[in-house]
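Researcher: Please predict.
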Amino acid sequence: MEEYCSLEAFRPRCWKNEIVLVEDAYYGRRRTGKCISAKEASRLQGPDYFGCYANVLHIVSRKCSGKKECEISIPDTELEETMPCLEGLKMFLEVRYSCVAGTMCTLCPKKTTLMLHPIDSTMHINRFR
């Protein structure tokens, strides 16, 4: 999982004939790493300061899955509205995604956003709205 700190941007880009497939996405202060040091985490104990986060897969998927590229700048208004931590704390985005063979599906059923093209057949993905 990659971390995107305050004032950074998540910018996935895929090759020709591939699209972004967001697999996991969290917003808040979930764990120590690039955006929050172990020293800062130990100083700010409690669920309101550290370990607070929201699963934002539905938001990040809507903005990026099925596209060749996208950009989400941190902070992002829609992600901030999830309010996983105390107001005023800098939060960050953690995302895991893949570039998969596929195209945007314009003729698929309404709730289907993208089509993946595995080696042997076409598969519709219905989890993105």
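Model: Residues 119-129 have pLDDT under 50 and may be disordered.
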